[in-house]
Amino acid sequence: VGPPLWYSDRLYDQTPPGVVMGLAWTSMGGSALYVESTLESILTLNSTPCLNKTGQMGDVMKESTAIAYTFAKSLMALEYSGNKFFEKAAIHLHVPEGATPKDGPSAGITMATSLLSLAFQKPLDPTIAMTGELTLTGKVLKIGGLREKAVAAKRSGVTTLIYPEANLSDWEELPENVKEGLKGVPVAWYSDVFNVVFGDISKEYAKNVW
Amino acid sequence: VGPPLWYSDRLYDQTPPGVVMGLAWTSMGGSALYVESTLESILTLNSTPCLNKTGQMGDVMKESTAIAYTFAKSLMALEYSGNKFFEKAAIHLHVPEGATPKDGPSAGITMATSLLSLAFQKPLDPTIAMTGELTLTGKVLKIGGLREKAVAAKRSGVTTLIYPEANLSDWEELPENVKEGLKGVPVAWYSDVFNVVFGDISKEYAKNVW
Amino acid sequence: VGPPLWYSDRLYDQTPPGVVMGLAWTSMGGSALYVESTLESILTLNSTPCLNKTGQMGDVMKESTAIAYTFAKSLMALEYSGNKFFEKAAIHLHVPEGATPKDGPSAGITMATSLLSLAFQKPLDPTIAMTGELTLTGKVLKIGGLREKAVAAKRSGVTTLIYPEANLSDWEELPENVKEGLKGVPVAWYSDVFNVVFGDISKEYAKNVW
């Protein structure tokens, strides 16, 4: 009797390119929070780039999306200049579930990863989740609720949790039973995230993917 | 004297292409909720694609329409690349009745089906109704009020009800007299919906319909 | 036990071009307030100039950004007419942290410096911080909370603090232990700021940087 003692909010067993698991922190505790990016229309030489957003995002989260978009575009331009994806792509970014209001900046690195995963056509390992505010230059800032987020991640089968280095002391204070089987990866810059999730992408591959 | 003991809110005996029966859940119980899509202007090689919406939709339902539109376009591009409908079509999507405020994400699969039905010029079997939130990648998420919706569907002559697999336990708890004569089809992805309603569409047909 | 007696809110050990440390004054005291500017897309001969802003800025701060943008553009046009940066650049200006509402005009010179640092591709000395309202003609106006800002600057490793000349008496009233190791630079016009941070930029360099 009563609510289930254990449940998962995993939506995806396998994540297609553009889908990344983030984590939310609410008054009810932590939960998985996916970010989905897809193309709105076929990529052509003449298509006009844009980013449309849905998912009942508040102002801060909408700005977070804009920051992630600018950052992903500049990373691509600087590191993989042969890849023209963001110059042509009409992108739709959605955060299910559609009726739940969401806000806050802590999905920044999740959004950037979602956009880059779509651009590289590279699906993520579905056992990776991440949380962290992103600045325009790729700095990763501290977030709230790491404990609740770690519990939710573990419940959903996550084995690698990427979190801001500024939350290192929060991580160290996690109970052993939460950390067991959950590898924490502290990151100070987005490049640290990139190495974990896209480290094996060659310049050659990136240039030719679209 | 008093309200009728039995009534139907079926608007269509036969549904033209673009019209699909969904289901609403309100404080008054469940009811049929049609989604209608038509062309705003003649389809030409030079027409500009767009999606206009009416029907007193709230924010969540408007976003739901945008998600269904992006999803339908990408499904078409990926599976039926010869069909140029969404690249040219100025579409108007309406949810009668026009004076009733409506909201929520649970018409997602109904909207996607409405748009695809128009694109394929394929009318639906009018005894099929459906309810389910849709994500950008085609995942079907849990909805509320399945019991009330099932009662309303049956009252309106529905014999096949498509609902999210995540609501399977709600379905199983329905009284036998509701389930009698009503076939439930649980779906986890939009491809499951597609197989039920458009399963007989060939690539050849889709390429030449417009 | 209790909060740390000493902490820094320095985000950057080295600041890339476009990033400048400003200072905020809140009911909690002073704190570092970075301004980040980056390019939204690659600079081409055909790109359309614009300035997008994020960071939960209030109306006054948004106007401050517009003033800094106009001022930076006119400085460039008057002094370095060979540099076409602002005629082509789609710029994104962000003020971390994304969830903190910010307002007020005192980041004016910081914003102008951020935009010029991006335009010149010239990183700033990370031990410099600045605060001051900017007018369209480059006049620097008095700000509030210099004492709290100076304390925050020092705590974050700043050794040079640029402040409005109109706040000279506030500076002189600072306790000796705050001023120790902190060089104050009073400025009446933006040209004074310019000489400190960009004084070594030649017309030749500015003309050829983009």
Question: Number of helix segments of chain A?
Answer: 8
| SSE pattern of chain A | EEEHHEHEEEHEHHEHH
What is the number of beta strands of chain A? 9
Gross morphology of chain A:
globular
How would you write the strand order of the largest sheet of chain A? 1-2-4-3
Main sheet makeup of chain A: 4 strands, mixed
What does the average pLDDT of chain A come to?
92
Low-confidence stretches of chain A: 1-6
Rounded Rg of chain A: 17 Å
What does the oligomeric state look like here?
homotrimer
Q: How far apart lie the N and C ends of chain A?
A: 53 Å
**Biggest protein-protein interface?**
A-B, 23 and 23 residues
User: What is the strand content of chain A?
Assistant: 15-25%
Q: Helix share of residues of chain A?
A: 25-40%
The structure class of chain A reads: alpha/beta
Description of the structure:
The structure is a homotrimer. With about 210 residues, chain A is of the alpha/beta class. Helix content of chain A is about 35%, strand content about 20%. Chain A is built from eight helices and nine strands. In chain A, the strands form three sheets. Chain A has a four-stranded mixed β-sheet with strand order 1-2-4-3. In chain A, a hairpin with a 2-residue loop joins strand 1 and strand 2. In chain A, helix 1 crosses helix 3. Chain A is globular. The interface between A and B is medium-sized, with 23 and 23 residues.
Short description:
Chain A is 34% helix and 22% strand.
Topology:
The structure is a homotrimer of 210-residue chains.
Chain A: E1 19-26, E2 29-39, E3 50-54, H1 59-79, H2 85-88, E4 90-94, H3 108-120, E5 128-130, E6 133-134, E7 140-141, H4 146-155, E8 160-164, H5 168-172, H6 176-179, E9 183-187, H7 190-198, H8 203-208
Helix pairs in contact in A: 1-3
